[in-house]
Q: What sequence folds into this?
């Protein structure tokens, strides 16, 4: 489930061309709701400008601290296996508030959840 490439200036991050089903959005929100260190989550489409990869959805999960990245990543990936269909694929990026592209992700306006 790891992203196929590292995020850089060679990608576009924006709202998905096809809207995500409300049921799926609720599933993702519920999946993350009991994880206290998760501050926010977004589901934009990411499109590579140089690799010729079609746009695909990436679940960005923002956690409090760098030490939370790995454990939350494992939890999210395990839970996603229960939600996603056999042929479905969803890349996951667990990031901290200082992630370089977080403001761009937020501006895509594809929020799954937010916690103050």
A:
């Amino acid at each position: 489930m790891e992203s196929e490439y590292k995020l850089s200036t060679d990608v576009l991050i924006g709202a998905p061309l096809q809207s995500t089903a409300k049921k799926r959005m609720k599933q993702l929100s519920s999946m993350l709701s009991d994880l206290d260190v998760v501050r926010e989550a977004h589901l934009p489409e990411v499109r590579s400008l140089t690799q010729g990869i079609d746009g695909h959805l990436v679940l960005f999960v923002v956690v409090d601290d760098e030490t939370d990245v790995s454990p939350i990543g494992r939890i999210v990936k395990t839970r996603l296996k229960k939600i996603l269909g056999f042929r479905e694929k969803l890349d996951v990026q667990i990031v901290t508030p200082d992630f370089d592209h977080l403001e761009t992700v937020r501006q895509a306006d594809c929020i799954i959840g937010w916690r103050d």
